[in-house]
TrEMBL record:
Pfam families: Rib_5-P_isom_A (PF06026). This is Ribose-5-phosphate isomerase. It comes from Cyanidiococcus yangmingshanensis. GO terms for molecular function: ribose-5-phosphate isomerase activity. Transmembrane segments: none annotated. GO terms for biological process: pentose-phosphate shunt, non-oxidative branch. Pathway: Carbohydrate degradation. It catalyses: aldehydo-D-ribose 5-phosphate = D-ribulose 5-phosphate.
């Protein structure tokens, strides 16, 4: 929510956060409503832009479905290859009934400051 209200959104990371493409560095979370959650999870996994992803419901330490502060569930998406078209994937997720939010935060950062082992550099939008 902060980035939506900010005039300029600056992200600061170290080089370990750089990846060859979106989706391959671990789970990408998608928040979904509890109603018909299994159907929603199957619909997400079948989206053309997410072809080849594996969708799994997030679970807590006891094995129960993880529940967010807003009483929704999280589906974690795992990819073998980077997402080919992140804008399309974000749109398809956004248009899927039952999806509350997703982990593709595109076009928000004004600048990314990256701390490397030898230097600090910036990427501007």
């Amino acid at each position: 929510m902060v980035e939506v209200c900010a005039k300029k959104f600056v992200v600061i990371v170290d080089e370990s956060k750089l990846v060859p493409g979106l989706g391959v560095s671990g789970a990408m979370p998608v928040e979904i409503t509890p109603f018909c959650w299994q159907h929603t999870m199957r619909k997400i996994a079948a989206l053309p832009s997410l072809a080849g992803c594996r969708a799994e419901p997030r679970r807590d330490a006891s094995g129960a479905l993880y529940v967010t502060d807003n009483h929704n569930y999280i589906v974690d998406l795992y990819f073998e290859k980077p997402i080919a078209d992140a804008d399309r994937a974000a749109k398809e997720l956004q248009d899927t009934v039952g999806v509350v939010e997703h982990g593709l935060f595109l076009g928000m950062a004004s600048v990314v400051v990256i701390a490397g082992a030898q230097k600090i550099y910036e990427k501007h939008r």
